[in-house]
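Before surveying the methods themselves, let us examine one representative protein, written as a sequence plus integers encoding its fold.
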Amino acid sequence: MEIVEYKDKYLEDVKDLLVELEEYIVSIDKDNLDQVHPEYREKMAILDLEEVNKNNGKCYLALENNKAIGLIMGCVFPYDEYDYLDYKCPKRGEITELIVTNKIRSKGIGQKLINKMEEYFKSVGCEYVIVDVFAYNHIGKNFYTKKNYHTRMETMIKKI
């Protein structure tokens, strides 16, 4: 297994991985708000990769037998022009996607991907890394906790 930077020849693998992640999110969504739209497979990977390119980011792939079995995407988003009013605004990276195909999870691939992204963020001067984790994704939350991430903000929801 090797970690490489994204190349266009792996686009179909990236699409498959993102669909697998979204299907998992849908399966654990107790609020029934998520969906896998019919256009998701064809559009989401392109949108995510454009966001990475536009925001000083990277996409890394875990490859096995020349097939992507995992991916991580991250960006270095700029702050809003008024963020400085109530926030110190240290440079931060944001993990926007992380998936390892469920056929081979728990073999350290996610750790290698996150380590690679954290190395990148450090190399461009980031002091922090943030990630949004779906509240019902206990596997994901446990993974990030083991990597020394902690909750800083929570979004509350109520159906009315």
In short: Helices lie at 11-28, 40-54, 109-123, 138-146. The chain has one domain: 2-146.
